[in-house]
Design brief:
Layout (H helix, E strand, L loop, with lengths): L1 H12 L7 H35 L2 E2 L11 E10 L6 E9 L3 E6 L5 E7 L1 E5 L10 E6 L4 E4 L3 H24 L1
Helix pairs in contact: 1-2
């Protein structure tokens, strides 16, 4: 950042007719690009470390750390059983490419239940007088989830839709 700030000041203070101004502007653009790349790499490394920490909190052990995977959301939500509509509390973890959930144990640990490759979402406008439910469609199975309130439901639905869109865009550009 210091080189970038220095070059910014030099470019700003240089007269417009200075012969070195185009070279300074080009150097500033290169330094800015390098700084942005370094910052992005550091951010991705931090995300991978967080995933590794989370991965170590699951029993039985699972693999969460994968190239490009990011944790987008985490919350305790209810999973509604298809057969009898009972609600079971799980902690859900939304990644940019999957949805995992597990039962909360002691000390920040989780008993892994399932990892889903999400393919779609049904917002379920009103189900059994509850507007806080939504259905996640996945390759493995569909899961109906109940949020504690409508705002939380909207936040989860938006995050899942964004993850699906982002995942689809990345597949197209690959």
């Amino acid at each position: 950042p210091r080189y970038k700030m220095l070059l910014e000041r030099i470019v700003k203070k240089s007269p417009t007719e200075a012969p070195d101004l185009p070279h300074l502007e080009k150097a500033l653009a290169l330094i800015t690009g390098v700084a942005d790349h370094v910052n992005l790499s550091l951010r991705r490394q931090e995300e991978q470390l967080k995933l590794l920490q989370l991965q170590n909190c699951f029993f039985p052990p699972i693999t969460l750390v994968q190239p490009g995977r990011r944790l987008l959301r985490r919350a305790e939500l209810g999973k509604i059983a298809e057969k009898n509509s009972t609600v079971q509390k799980y902690t859900f973890f939304l990644f940019n490419d999957a949805l995992a959930y597990g039962a909360k144990l002691f000390g920040g640990y989780y008993k892994f239940h399932r990892m889903l490759t999400v393919t779609g979402i049904d917002t379920m406008a009103s189900t059994d007088h509850s507007t806080n439910r939504f259905k996640v469609m996945a390759n493995e199975r569909n899961v109906t989830i109940g949020a504690p309130n409508y705002e939380e439901k909207v936040a989860w639905v938006n995050a899942i839709e964004e993850a699906l869109s982002d995942h689809s865009n990345r597949k197209e550009t690959f």
